[in-house]
Amino acid sequence: MKVIYVVPGTGMGAQELERRRSILQSNSGKDVKVDIIESSEGPNSIESSYEEYLSIPETVLRVVDAQKKGYQGAILGCFGDPGIDAIREMVQIPVVGPGEASMLIAAMLGHKFSIVTILDNVIPSMEMHAKIIGIDSKLASIRSVNIPVLELAKDLESAKKKIIEESRNAKEHDGADTIILGCMSMAFLGVSNELQKTLGIPVINPAIVSLKILESLVICNLTHSKMAYPSPPKLNS
Amino acid sequence: MKVIYVVPGTGMGAQELERRRSILQSNSGKDVKVDIIESSEGPNSIESSYEEYLSIPETVLRVVDAQKKGYQGAILGCFGDPGIDAIREMVQIPVVGPGEASMLIAAMLGHKFSIVTILDNVIPSMEMHAKIIGIDSKLASIRSVNIPVLELAKDLESAKKKIIEESRNAKEHDGADTIILGCMSMAFLGVSNELQKTLGIPVINPAIVSLKILESLVICNLTHSKMAYPSPPKLNS
Amino acid sequence: MKVIYVVPGTGMGAQELERRRSILQSNSGKDVKVDIIESSEGPNSIESSYEEYLSIPETVLRVVDAQKKGYQGAILGCFGDPGIDAIREMVQIPVVGPGEASMLIAAMLGHKFSIVTILDNVIPSMEMHAKIIGIDSKLASIRSVNIPVLELAKDLESAKKKIIEESRNAKEHDGADTIILGCMSMAFLGVSNELQKTLGIPVINPAIVSLKILESLVICNLTHSKMAYPSPPKLNS
Amino acid sequence: MKVIYVVPGTGMGAQELERRRSILQSNSGKDVKVDIIESSEGPNSIESSYEEYLSIPETVLRVVDAQKKGYQGAILGCFGDPGIDAIREMVQIPVVGPGEASMLIAAMLGHKFSIVTILDNVIPSMEMHAKIIGIDSKLASIRSVNIPVLELAKDLESAKKKIIEESRNAKEHDGADTIILGCMSMAFLGVSNELQKTLGIPVINPAIVSLKILESLVICNLTHSKMAYPSPPKLNS
Amino acid sequence: MKVIYVVPGTGMGAQELERRRSILQSNSGKDVKVDIIESSEGPNSIESSYEEYLSIPETVLRVVDAQKKGYQGAILGCFGDPGIDAIREMVQIPVVGPGEASMLIAAMLGHKFSIVTILDNVIPSMEMHAKIIGIDSKLASIRSVNIPVLELAKDLESAKKKIIEESRNAKEHDGADTIILGCMSMAFLGVSNELQKTLGIPVINPAIVSLKILESLVICNLTHSKMAYPSPPKLNS
Amino acid sequence: MKVIYVVPGTGMGAQELERRRSILQSNSGKDVKVDIIESSEGPNSIESSYEEYLSIPETVLRVVDAQKKGYQGAILGCFGDPGIDAIREMVQIPVVGPGEASMLIAAMLGHKFSIVTILDNVIPSMEMHAKIIGIDSKLASIRSVNIPVLELAKDLESAKKKIIEESRNAKEHDGADTIILGCMSMAFLGVSNELQKTLGIPVINPAIVSLKILESLVICNLTHSKMAYPSPPKLNS
Fold first, then answer.
1. Phi and psi at residue F122, to the nearest 5°
2. Interatomic CA distance for residues D151 and D174, integer angstroms
3. How far apart are the first and last CA of chain B?
């Protein structure tokens, strides 16, 4: 099986791309080959609806291209799942959105989940996303560590401390029984296992969960419904 | 007051743009000047999520530019309100989405509204939009006439007939007490008054309703909340 | 255009009625004539469901009469919208309820609104009203200043201070991104613009918003659906 | 125990009042005395929101008076429960609304109930009432026999036939597992037991159910919460 | 009328069973005979979903047996209503669940109720139960006194103090206008009337309310719908 | 990895157990060993809530035992997920319920799913289960083929025909864009791929999906939250 992780943005650099790819590869099934690609246009990091939209047109083309090249599934590498509906309109292969996959898996592990994300200003659109997914009745809260994406890895200890603090707040004050790391750069920090041990409740790493869900869909011969995500009529000839 | 109607696409042609502008102008308040502009990039018509996304980046810039030029408000000229959250992040002037404005006014006129739109394939994303707006408990149904946007005006009689037929179906079979025309090209066909008379229930023309709501917001000194639509941090300097 | 603002109560006095009328008139469109009338029966102020009901029978007749006299629309001058369903059953002209109009416009400006009203004891019925309107999923909270209607104007500074305080509480503790003044006597205190500036989020004045929505409906040739508000059969001959 | 059934209207006639009282009395507990009273003002029958409102002011006073006279509880004798919130604001004794009691008991007997009522035009406000009660997620449908209240008893066989027909439609087409007779004049027709036998699913008679719930509340020493239905401040001295 | 209260567990002892029976009997209607029985298998107290399930198979048989013996109705003597759906599948007589009956009666007395129960760990399943009943929109909170069932009666004063404290917290911090005692051993402590007086809001005793609802159903000739609780096909011959 | 599929019933026979195990094994990851076990007590097939409850006590013990034996995860082999909350209370290893896993995966593939199951009488409890899972807003319908579990395999062609027919009805009449086979004996009929091809929309096989989700959870080091499914206090020593 050959799958691809598509970063909807630019400027990550070959080294970080390879670091992320190898983390995914090391969590993949035996016969699974994971590739990674970033977009050729779009923002360096996505911290607003506007930047989500900037990333989408080019990212759709990257997934269309991946399908042509024989990839059997794709992960949209941003927790906000920007443009996942458009991508699904344009391809037949399964496309996993880390936000969607994480929230639905969280619904399987408990009754109330919280998302710990980067900045306050992405919270409103993330709440809207939970509504679209249909699982907002189980969303306890969204909390932010107030660290921009590109700063997260610069001071890992401080980031980890803030993530633990807000996760604990979610557990103790918002009633969350499950935590989701709500940002892909957080997912690749390598903190989720330690966080889970510290808190004593499940912590979902959206990167690994997305990969395993994608592998599951491919093996189950499942992809999104074309009734739900119909091909654009004008482009469908 | 100076407001602008922004068409999120290209290729409409100066004549049709002027025709639409003059319809809006003739429904405007005494001291209101309505301008119209189309985008310099994007699809000829929007009939899918993908085409919505294609239209957004350039359209956001058009509204940012309009704000700089002193326009006091803008109408996003597509019923799906594509990228309205991003536009609101980037400007301070009120931005009216015809879908949002029509659904909320419909909620004032009755208990159950239906939307009659162009093509079946836009129905799923329109249902999601109603959820985001928060008024989906009053949405009776979305029905389509199955005529592409660019065909609507070519055979006006046939289009009108189909619109009446599906509106009547919504009233009789889905319990709709109010109808919304769910496409801006439908809105400018000039059929809503006749349709209202034929059906005996309110028919909302999203173009005119959006203009009047925009004028109302400007006079009331109201615009969207920056808590709900925060400025992107990286662009906010 | 000739519209009327109907106060569902008595004892306001000609001077205050004229003061309110002139505020509305000064916010109206160029060709709009605003009249005001109070009921000939009913309570001096409405601070309970019981007083709402006392006001309704006579108020319905005032609006029926206004329709006969050629008014093209009416505003029901109480934030609780008492008896708006009955009024709509009995007339064809559009009738705007300030509570309903304010909540639906609030839904256009943000994701979570709070209402700041007079007394704690009206909160339960106001919550029920939001459910009926169908927008309760966006209601963050209802808070009261605990000042009776007839006291509001007596100590304007103290009232203003309490309104600011509870609005700030709604913003900071309840997550409200938009505030609605939940009482018509509050609306006519002239504090909403200052409050908006102080808080940095939209503040809806139900009096002005209701007037602009009514003008919009009249110009759009829209009124409530008779399927939703059918004429009483026995009175319909 | 002494309880009272208050008819919120006029013109029923002493004979019919006594007939209804004796039906209630014969279903009451051993030590329960049931009285009946009609209002001194209000419509002959309630078939619209407007007529509901006409009945309320006087009916509230009848219940206030009943409390003074030592009645330990009251039934509001109209399925729409007109003004029950106001009555509860004004008295301490338990007040049962037949609509509310029937819907909540229906929720105990099955998963989906339908209401069979008199006329189509009361359906929208009955749907709103179910929302207020909080049990609308279990409401399958409201259907009407299209017979005015005052005609129901005139042709009993025809009325019964229509009630059976619409109840069966509710069961077969709307998935109702429980039926509520949605009008007090229907309740006193004496058809519910036969209807239950014919349909094979529970049929709730709102008159008898209301009486038994009221007796239960009195014996349990329960009445409505004054936090939910606070006394009007101006009248509270 | 002959009804039975079935304790879904074992080891209560004849004395406590008789004490509970006589409390029920003393609150029953004049011609009502109340019997009590405990199961022959199952846990000593139910403080988890697992223990609920342990109690069910034997308890279903106890109610089936009671129906055969001519009992006209049964109360399932545990607030979590364990297996009430299965019991209703297997019998025709009405079966009252104290949790269900209490929550639906609470919905009649106010707008927001809280449940005060024994241990934190039963809260998640109790929240699920409120969803099934369909009345979760009126559930303000569930709070626990953190005293195991079998300890409750050992230090009555301390238990009472904790119950008052958590009820007051529910009223003051969670907005509850009505309190439900969420455990049958609490119900039989004899504290509800005092608690109601202390708090000034209704306090529902699930034991007494269940008895009165059961008597009401029997007199109204009502039982659960067999469409909602169908007989198991294989056992239905 | 070593996982176990636990059949909550008896009498399936070694041959059928082995057939099912080998289907699971052939869909498992390279290093995954799948075992199967049936309960030593309980019904031959589960077609009612009552039979669900009969199966639970023994099944819980089977999973507790499996954990002791070193299994890293378990699948509860019945689509109704009977007693999954109790099992999760008693073990630390992840336990996948095929109903829950299928519905949450369906929510990832489309906007509206339908379940096609065995008999009409299991529909009400399956609807309740969707509510508990929190995804009922995406449930289009549940339809049955009206064939008892133990008859399904006896006339495979006829079963397949009925499954196709009801799935098509769900798609065409209920708006389902995704189908779930709602019974484990259906899942092992080997019809899902053909059905998916015939219908042109995704068809979820709960057996395979459950296995892949379980493998994913184990690899992600995730299990249910002990805050959501706390250990029973009395058994927790």
1. -90, -5
2. 27
3. 29
- The four Cα atoms C60, C61, C66, C67 give a dihedral, to 10 degrees, of 80
Name chain D's partners: 3 or more CB pairs within 8 A. Answer: B, C, E, F
Q: What does the H/E/C string look like for chain C?
A: CEEEEEECCCCCCHHHHHHHHHHHHHCCCCCCEEEEEECCCCCCCCCCHHHHHHHHHHHHHHHHHHHHCCCCEEEECCCCCCCHHHHHHHCCCCEECHHHHHHHHHHHHCCCEEEEECCHHHHHHHHHHHHHHCCHHHEEEEEECCCCHHHCCCCHHHHHHHHHHHHHHHHHHCCCCEEEECCHHHHCCCCHHHHHHHHCCCEECHHHHHHHHHHHHHHCCCCCCCCCCCCCHHHCC
Is the backbone of residue B175 left (phi > 0), alpha (psi -120 to 50) or beta? left
Two tokens at E188?
């039989």
Biggest alpha carbon–alpha carbon distance for chain D: 54
Estimate to the nearest angstrom the gap between the alpha carbon of A12 and the chain centroid.
16
How many Å apart are CA B58 and CA B46, to the nearest integer? 14
Dist CA F20 CA F5 (whole Å)? 9
Name the one residue in this structure whose structure tokens are 């509310």: D100
Q: Of F95, E106, F104, which is closest to residue D134 (Cα–Cα)?
A: E106
How far are the Cα atoms of B228, D81, D83, E123, F27 from residue D78, in angstroms, in the given order? 44, 6, 10, 38, 62
User: Quick one: tokens of E43?
Assistant: 């846990």
Report which DSSP code applies to E138: G
C-alpha C184/C-alpha C206 separation (Å) is: 7
Q: Where are the alpha helices (DSSP H) in chain E?
A: 14-26, 49-68, 84-90, 98-109, 123-133, 156-174, 184-187, 192-199, 206-219
Say if residues D105 and E221 touch (Cβ distance below 8 Å).
no
E30 CB near a chain D CB, below 8 Å?
yes
CB A114 within 8 A of CB A232: no
Within 8 A of C124 by CB-CB distance, chain E residues are 111, 177
Global pTM value: 0.97
Beta bridge partners of F5: F36, F75
pLDDT of C237 above 60 = no
pLDDT at A235 over 70: yes
Which residues, other chains included, contact E220 with Cβ-Cβ below 8 Å and sequence gap of 6+? D27, D204, D205, D208, D209, D212
What burial letters (b/e) apply to B116-136, b meaning 16+ CB within 10 Å?
bbbbebbbbbbbbbbbbbbbb
Chain C's closest residue to B107, CA to CA, is: C133
Q: Name the percent of chain A lying above pLDDT 90.
A: 95
- The model's confidence at residue F236, banded by pLDDT at 50, 70 and 90, is low
Residue C58, chain D, CB below 8 Å: the answer is no
**What is the distance, to the nearest Å, from the Cα of residue F15 to the centroid of all Cα atoms in its chain?**
20
CA C82 to chain CA centroid, nearest Å: 10
B/E touch flag: 3 or more CB pairs below 8 Å: no
Torsions phi, psi for C29 (to 5 deg) = -65, 165
Q: How many angstroms separate the CA atoms of F201 and F179, rounded?
A: 7
Q: Which among A51, A40, A123, A108 has a CA at the least distance from the CA of A83?
A: A51
* Amino acid identity for residue E66 in this structure: A
**C214 close to B (CB below 8 A):** no
Cβ of A132 under 8 Å from any chain C Cβ? no
The tens digit of pLDDT for each residue in F40-51 reads 888 999 999 999
Residues B207, B209, B215, B217: is their CA dihedral positive or negative? negative
What the block records as the tokens of B151 is 């065909």
Q: What is the pLDDT of residues A133-153, one digit of tens each?
A: 999 999 999 999 999 999 998
The ipTM, to two decimals, is: 0.96
User: How many other C-beta atoms are found inside a 10 Å radius of the C-beta of residue B31?
Assistant: 10
Confidence check: pLDDT of B113 > 70: yes
> Apex CA D223: angle with CA D218 and CA D226, to 5°?
165
